Amino acid sequence: MRAQHVLSAALVLGLSAAAAAQDHGAHDITKPNLVLQQMVEGLPKDEKQSVRVMTASFKRGDKTVYHTHRFPVTVYVLEGAFTLELDGKPPLTVKAGEALVEPPNVAMTGYNRTDAETKVVIFYVSAVDTPFLDLLSH
Predict the structure, then answer these.
(1) DSSP assignment of 60-108
(2) What is the pTM (predicted TM-score) of this model?
(3) Contact call for residues 137 and 108 (beta carbons, < 8 A)
(4) Is the pLDDT of residue 23 over 60?
């Protein structure tokens, strides 16, 4: 009789575990989608760094100032397309869902050359109290 109770308990626990697993499986598990992986140089080496996450919207024809950054900047395009012109290189255009890394100490200007609005998210890791950009005269 005792063996039958143990068997019954094991069966109930097994069914409960299976039901819980199915219930848990009913929910999707979100996994990250790798958008960009790139080796970079010029990251800060201080004991502490400042992390900034910014957004920007560009209307048709809008552009950034002519500038440089002291550390690499990552730009992720949410909507539209973003064109980056780096001195000495051909223009690079990234579309919604894509990203690019702007290298440090290179003169650049970014543009929205589309007919629609462009929205981006900007990630910047720098030494503490470092300005986001340094203006240049063109």
Answers:
(1) TT-BPPSEE-SS-EEEEEEESEEEEEETTS--EEEETT-EEEEPTT--E
(2) 0.78
(3) no
(4) no
Tokens of 110: 């970014």
Q: Do the beta carbons of residue 83 and residue 113 sit within 8 Å?
A: yes
Residue 127 in contact with residue 50, Cβ under 8 Å?
yes
Residues pairing with 125 in the sheet: 51
Q: Which tokens hold the place of 24?
A: 């848990």
First vs last C-alpha separation in the chain? 91
For residue 27, what pLDDT is reported? 81
Task: Tell me: pLDDT of 118 over 90.
Answer: yes
Tally Cβ neighbours within 10 Å of residue 126: 21
